[in-house]
Amino acid sequence: MPQDSRPTPAVAHLRRKSWRRRSYSQFGSATVERIGMPQAPFGDAFHFLMRTTWPVFCVAFAAYYLLINVLFGAVYYWDIAGIDGATAHSFGEAFMFSVQTIATIGYGHLVPKSTFVNAIVVFESMAAFLGLSLWTGLAFSRFSRPTARVMFSSQAIVTTDDGVPTLMFRVANGRGNRIVDASLTVTLLKNEINAEGMECRRQVDLKLVRARSAVFALSWTVLHRIDAASPLAGIKDIAHARMAPQLIVSLLGIDDTFGQPIHSMQYYEAKDILRGKRFVDMASIAEDGHRVLDFTHFDEVEDDPQATAAVPTGDVS
Question: Within a domain: residue 317?
């Protein structure tokens, strides 16, 4: 190896330190194993606590609360005689004194009397203020963070629309509010062999009939025409192709209630794209003349009487 191409000691140390580390990422139903990525578990603690589930968040808070009280309780136990009212050799009372201190409960039974214990109380009070601020901020951020409750149809279909083979799927706003300036992008992810004979993963954007909705409040049927210019036009037997295609759908918009951006994503594997089917109609007119959308039919499909016309050149399935 030429001298100028050798890694620096810091880079070499990083490689030796991180090459065995593994992590897993979820993309739709596919799990990707990543090896050798440098990790900083404590550096990403805020990100982890913001995206984890509420049960895990509550368990993490309980673990933090118990751990800090055990640590300070052990320090108090070292000078248990410095706590007025505490029983000698009682770690339980030292632990409960820490709980009363950190929570500012102050029942009055246990009182610090030695200089050492009073000094530790000062440090524990500082830790309590800092910890309470951080956990309160995290909990408030989780509650106040706007999230999208967007419904995607469980399957996409290929059918005929206006005489043209069309890929379509349904999207609906699961809340009663509005998503302002909603925009959709649909990306086809597929394996290809490049000019050098190497297999690579390509991303190709699909052109939509309508990619933007000024006000998204109810439902939206997303359409992509499979014409000669479509990346799907020449795909044969998509469900078993080596190209392993996948559709990635991303929706962005402004929540009308919070006035903040929201997003939602959906993945469609090849097996989720049906041919020879069409969506069951959700819309109807009530007796008094108002429109009705029956979302119990949101995911339902039925046989397409024009199924033969829905097959584009290249047999998309």
Answer: no
Contact between 297 and 148 (Cβ < 8 Å): no
Burial group, residue 118, by CB count within 10 angstroms (0-12, 13-18, 19+): exposed
Residue 135, both tokens: 């956990």
Question: Which SS3 state, helix, strand or coil, does residue 174 take?
Answer: coil
Cβ atoms within 10 Å of 317's Cβ, excluding its own: 17
Residue 270 located in a structural domain = yes
What are the pLDDT digits (tens) for 158-210? 888 888 889 999 999 988 789 999 999 999 988 877 778 787 888 899 999 99
User: Quick one: 204 and 301 in the same domain?
Assistant: yes
Report residue 9's pLDDT band, with 50, 70 and 90 as the boundaries.
Answer: low
Residue that is last in its domain, among 120, 144, 168: 144
* Pairing of β 156-161 and β 273-275: parallel
Report the residue count for the chain: 317
One domain, residues 206 and 271? yes
Q: Is residue 2 part of a domain?
A: no
* CA 58, 60, 63, 67 torsion-angle sign: negative
Q: Is residue 89 part of a domain?
A: yes
- How far apart are the C-alpha atoms of 210 and 189, rounded to whole Å? 21
> Could you list the residue range(s) of the whole structural domain that residue 123 is in?
45-144
The DSSP code for 270 is G
Q: Give residue 142's identity as a one-letter amino acid code.
A: R
Rg (CA), the chain: 30
Q: How many CB atoms lie within 10 A of CB 14?
A: 14
Look at residue 240 and tell me whether its pLDDT is greater than 90: no
Distances (CA, A) of 135 to 44, 73, 231: 15, 21, 48
Question: What mean pLDDT do residues 114-130 have?
Answer: 93
CA distance 224 to 237: 18
Q: How many domains does the chain have?
A: 3
Contacts of 226 (CB under 8 A, 6+ apart): 158, 164, 165, 166, 167, 232, 233, 312, 316
